[in-house]
Amino acid sequence: MLVELTIRRTAGDPVPNSPVDGIRILALLPQRWRKDLRAVTGDIAIRVHTDEETTDTQIRAEVTQILTNPEVSDWELVTCRTLTNGRSATKEEKS
Asked: Which superkingdom, per the lineage (predicted)?
């Protein structure tokens, strides 16, 4: 499954064009997932490719849990969109 995660800072000023938090979040995501930091301008967009058995609900739950870690707890998952052929599918979920 290919999904795009949009993660946004919950409070405070956004760090302009700084990939540091995006890299921290990437490091905390499961190693079994292939991941790619897509954008860092206020929001963080990460594309995640998992095995076909993994559902977007499972991905959303795991990312939400990861974002409780103190080093990234000021970020929240905004969307978890399933992508097909690199484009957004019609389904968009807000956490």
From this structure: Bacteria
